[in-house]
Amino acid sequence: MYYTKISEALAAVIQFGAGITAFTAIALFNGWITIEPVDILFYAGAIFVIMFIIFLAFYLLSLLDSRKINEKLKEK
């Protein structure tokens, strides 16, 4: 994430909201889903789950990298 004066949680909420909105709008525009509320909510929910899994994977990878860096710093 880039440095901002907002909290990381708020930045994540904004990123998730913008991503879900953009993907859903593109899906509607391309005709991948219909303009039925159930379809839109199901698609938005699926996009949220996918984005959350990716976010969680990156978070865990950065956590592991941080631990490796800390171990190397302790060795010096």
What report would you give on this structure?
With 76 residues, the chain is mostly helical. The protein is 82% helix and 0% strand. The protein has two helices and no strands. It has helices spanning 8-30, 37-75. It is elongated, with a radius of gyration of 18 Å.
Number of DSSP-assigned strands: 0
**Helical residue percent band:** over 70%
Average pLDDT, all residues: 89
Instruction: Determine the structural class based on helices, strands and strand pairing.
Output: mainly alpha
Beta content: under 5%
- Uncertain segments: none
Number of helices: 2
For the record, give the distance between the C-alpha atoms at the N and C termini, rounded to a whole number.
Answer: 29 Å
In short:
By secondary structure, this protein is mainly α. It is 82% helix and 0% strand. The chain starts with 7 loop residues before the first helix and ends with a helix.
Give the topology.
Elements (H helix, E strand, L loop, with lengths): L7 H23 L6 H39 L1
Keywords:
elongated; mainly alpha
